[in-house]
Design a protein that fits this description.
Strand content: over 45%
Distance between the termini: 39 Å
Number of helices: 0
Radius of gyration: 13 Å
Length: 112
């Protein structure tokens, strides 16, 4: 099993940027893909972005395509989510997932 800690959330105005980090420990990191999900109040958890173990392949939800970028630094056991051009509808708790484990999440709030 792996332990995951998300960080980097906060309050930002629409059009602004944030970079989220997901730090992992307890399990080989580079052999697994890492996904970011988010959940807004009263809504289902939804997929945001994912990156392969090598870092060479990434996929994005249509809602964030062109605005968010996922990357990983395997030497630091960390995955990042760079979020640009943020919109109020991006407001949610963001979670990272690795080999079946989840972190506690980090809150992102985007004001109008």
């Amino acid at each position: 099993q792996v332990q995951l800690v998300e960080s980097g959330g906060g309050l930002v105005q629409a059009g602004g940027s944030l970079r989220l980090s997901c730090a992992a420990s307890g399990r080989p990191f580079s052999r697994y893909n890492v996904d970011w999900y988010r959940q807004a109040p009263g809504k289902e958890r939804e997929f945001v972005a994912g990156v392969a173990g090598s870092g060479g392949t990434a996929v994005y939800a249509d809602s964030v395509k062109g605005r968010f970028t996922i990357s990983r630094d395997n030497a630091k056991n960390t995955v990042y989510l760079q979020m640009n051009s943020l919109k109020p509808e991006d407001t949610a708790i963001y979670y990272c997932s690795h080999s079946g484990s989840w972190g506690q999440g980090t809150q992102v709030t985007v004001s109008s």
